[in-house]
Amino acid sequence: MAGKKSQLSSKAIRQDNIAGAGGGMLIASLANNLPEGNQFKSWLLILAPLLTIIIKSCWDFIWSEIATYFKKLRAGRLRNKAVKNIEKLLKDPSISYEKKTELSEKREQIKLSSVDDLLAHVKKLTGS
């Protein structure tokens, strides 16, 4: 029993699987609610697995795009916060000139990293 429990806990239920299964069940349910003489009923029941795969694929694509968008948004906010903190430290008179030079270099690296990310995104979109 303990081995079975660990197997179940190690398998995560993913949202795309739920969306695919839910979509397939919805299609089959709609098909079953059609009258017996309806010409679409048999086609919907036959195509339900294929439509489920299509729904799951669309969900995978949409979810990955949303996740990527929010990761980039968070990264941008963290970059801005880091630059603001560095600029605050650069104005602090108690910090030595050497440390301020290091901080200026770090600020420049952070700003350039955002440009590098944009260039990588452009290369990804253009395929070059």
Give structural notes.
This protein has helices at residues 2-10, 15-33, 39-90, 97-126. It has 128 residues and is an all-alpha fold. It has one domain (2-126).
Give the SSE map.
Layout: H1 2-10, H2 15-33, H3 39-90, H4 97-126
Helix pairs in contact: 2-3, 3-4
TL;DR?
This protein has helices at residues 2-10, 15-33, 39-90, 97-126. The protein is mainly alpha-helical and 128 residues long. Helix 2 (15-33) packs antiparallel against helix 3 (39-90) and helix 3 (39-90) runs antiparallel to helix 4 (97-126).
Offer a few descriptive terms.
128 residues; mainly alpha; 4 helices; rod-shaped
Provide the helix percentage: over 70%
| Helix segment tally | 4
pLDDT averaged over residues: 82
- Largest sheet properties: none
Distance between the termini: 53 Å
Counting helices, strands and paired strands, the structural category is: mainly alpha
Strand and helix order: HHHH
Range of strand content: under 5%
Q: Count the strands?
A: 0
Return Rg in Å.
Answer: 26 Å
Kindly report the oligomeric state of this protein.
Answer: single chain
Uncertain regions: pLDDT < 50 for 5+ in a row?
5-11
Total domain units: 1
